[in-house]
Design brief:
Helices cover 46% and strands 24% of the residues. The chain has 18 helices and 21 strands. A hairpin with a 5-residue loop joins strand 20 and strand 21. The longest helix has 45 residues, at 172-216.
């Protein structure tokens, strides 16, 4: 009896061992099949292969669900990317997206230690896993197994089984199966991710090349944005796009897709936000954690957007604008997309700065062209070796005779347009200018036409650095013919006036009359020799002095002021007048007059004082009268 029980016990142990061995072999065969299938699959079908692997493993272990969770870049969120469910089991994948890892700290600690998570009974989880218990019970999970998914030196996420219809007490076999296939699935996911990243990087690089081609094809900002922004929006998979740009002191939307303006709101507020960061700014989810910019998040929410990427556009290290992309779903950028955004910022910023400089140069060129086309100064650029015209402005044509002006175009040789002697002289000057590097200036160059007509020019011939780096000279000329003629006329007039002045001075100095010219302030401007001699000084000593400082007389001053203010001449006959050092001592008698001189506006600008000594006549007459009276008494 004992031997029979022992035999049955041994047989049962043998059967269990054989069954365990067969299950282990089956597990190994399943793992090898899954690994071989995933290795052979092209990158585009890897997800299908992993999903089939989940189905095989789930059926092999009689699980209700089998799934893969992957961490997002940064490790703060994870997503249920793949899921297989047994018939009759409700899928949960769509509820398990963008789940914060901070909500399951015990779970994350187990995975970071690369340990399997084996939970035969969710209700029996330890207190430190209270958060995980709450999450699992909300999904009606009774038992669970999960193991880390690894890539080289990287935790990708985890692969797991769960049972919702009934609990399972023995989970070690399921954990062993998961560990066997997790390496294959982890490497497949890693390979697929690398392949996708490579394809994404290639696609983004091609998109960046198209953007660069688009922005370099024009210097017009509106055309640039209309060509580049849709390409950027497609590359970043955005739902809407807009461009804000600073014009003067104001910020405005300069381009927007059909829905682009709705999520930007107030452009100036985005500008302030980007100016503070100076780099691309991503709001991943407006419904997630508290954002750094609550005002912008509130605006995005009202417009129906969950995420936004803002790319600064810089010029001379200053914020000039921004590309804004809106997303109607939570968005996390890959490393390739982040690099694309940074390169996009640099490329479009550089293109915008080039466009700004071009526009500035364009308007400067138009301004300079309008100036050179309208100013009466001739300008000619010549090749210094051949004297061929490279550029000439309208006023420069006046340097040539009338029949030659129509032929004075770029490429024309100057020796065909001017007399041979002038061309030779210019060639010598050009060589000297280039040799010394100093300009040649002739303030009154004479040009004689074939018909003998003479014109005078101010010439400045200087070296000129052309854009093609050739050795050129620039001729700047301004016609001085009228000025020279006017100057000759003025010189002739001055000579005539000087002759008249000398004649007048000779007359003034050779008369017995005392003459003086005063300005309206009674300052002596000119006196004749008699007047100066009567005061005992030279004429030069009197010029510039006030008349009443020389001859103080209050009554005479009143007479002078009345004549000046009234603008009327004043005349006196045989009135007393004395000089400090006159030829005769005593008051004497004078016929004198003060005549105002008026300018073209009728204002008195000076006065002429004329004094005639009639003392001898008055004295003679007095003696005659006395003799007559004495005769009558006799």
């Amino acid at each position: 009896m004992v031997d029979q029980r022992l035999e049955e016990s041994v047989q049962q142990s043998y059967t269990e061992l054989q069954d365990h061995h067969e299950r282990a072999l089956a597990s190994e065969r399943l793992a090898r099949l899954i690994c071989a299938d995933l290795v052979r699959r092209p990158p585009e079908t890897l997800d299908d292969g992993v999903l089939q692997a989940l189905e095989r493993v789930g059926q092999f272990c009689s699980a209700d669900r089998c799934y893969v969770f992957l961490l997002r870049p940064g490790g703060l969120l994870w997503d249920n990317t793949l899921e297989w469910c047994a018939p009759g089991v409700e899928p949960r994948k769509h509820h398990l997206q963008a789940r914060p890892t901070a909500q399951t700290p015990w779970w994350m600690d187990q995975l970071r230690r690369l340990e399997p998570i084996i939970i035969p009974d969710v209700a029996a989880l330890p207190p430190e896993a209270a958060l995980e218990r709450e999450v699992l019970e909300a999904q009606d999970i009774r038992s669970l197994v999960a193991v880390p998914l690894l890539a080289p030196e990287t935790l990708l996420g985890f692969i797991g089984f769960d049972w919702v219809r009934e609990g399972v007490t023995s989970l070690h076999r399921a954990a062993t199966v998961l560990e066997m296939v997790s390496n294959a699935i982890g490497h497949a996911i890693h390979r697929g991710r690398v392949e996708r990243e490579l394809r994404e990087a290639k696609a983004l690089n091609e998109a960046l090349n198209r953007v660069n081609a688009a922005v370099r094809a024009t210097f017009d900002l509106d055309e640039m944005m209309a060509a580049a922004v849709p390409e950027c929006s497609r590359a970043l998979q955005a739902d809407a796009a807009a461009v804000i740009h600073r014009r003067g002191d104001a910020w405005a939307i300069v381009y927007a897709s059909p829905e682009g303006a709705s999520f930007v709101g107030e452009p100036a507020s985005w500008a302030r936000l980007l100016a503070a960061s100076g780099r691309p700014l991503l709001i991943e989810d407006t419904e997630g954690e508290a954002p750094a910019s609550p005002d912008h998040v509130a605006w995005l929410r009202r417009a129906g957007y969950r995420a936004c990427l803002s790319v600064p556009l810089l010029g001379n290290s200053e914020l000039r604008g921004a590309l804004c992309f809106g997303y109607r779903h939570p968005t996390t950028l890959s490393e390739a997309q982040r690099d694309f955004a940074a390169n996009l910022s640099a490329s479009i910023s550089m293109a915008m700065e080039s466009a700004r400089l071009y526009q500035s140069e364009f308007w400067n060129h138009r301004f300079l062209r309008s100036v050179t086309d309208t100013i009466p100064v001739g300008m000619v650029v010549l090749d210094s070796e051949t004297l061929r015209i490279k550029w000439i402005n309208p006023a420069g044509l006046n340097l040539l005779e009338e029949p030659c002006r129509s032929r004075a175009k770029p490429g024309a040789v100057l020796s065909d347009l001017v007399p041979h002697s002038q061309a030779e002289a210019l060639a010598r000057v050009a060589q000297r200018v280039l040799a010394t590097g100093q300009p040649y200036v002739d303030e009154e160059a004479l040009l004689t036409a074939a018909d003998g007509t003479k014109t005078y020019w101010w010439l400045n011939i200087m070296p000129y650095a052309s854009p093609d780096c050739s050795r050129d000279i620039l001729i700047v000329a301004s016609e001085m013919t009228e000025q020279v003629r006017t100057r000759s006329q003025v010189e002739e007039l001055v000579a005539s006036l000087e002759e008249e002045r000398d004649l007048l001075q000779a007359i003034m100095d050779n008369t017995d009359t005392y003459l003086a010219y005063l300005n309206s302030d009674f300052e002596l401007v000119r006196v004749n020799a008699n007047f100066a001699e009567g005061l005992g000084v030279t004429p030069e000593e009197l010029v510039g002095r006030c008349f009443f400082d020389v001859l103080p007389d209050l009554e005479v001053r009143r007479i002078f002021e009345w004549g000046r203010d009234a603008g009327l001449p004043v005349r006196f006959h045989e009135r007393g007048f004395s000089f400090p050092r006159a030829k005769r001592y005593g008051p004497g008698y004078w016929d004198w007059s003060l005549v105002p001189i008026k300018n073209s506006q009728g204002h008195v600008q000076g006065l002429v004082l004329c004094l005639v000594d009639v003392t001898p006549f008055v004295l003679t007459r007095s003696r005659i009268e006395a003799l007559v009276a004495e005769t009558q008494r006799w």
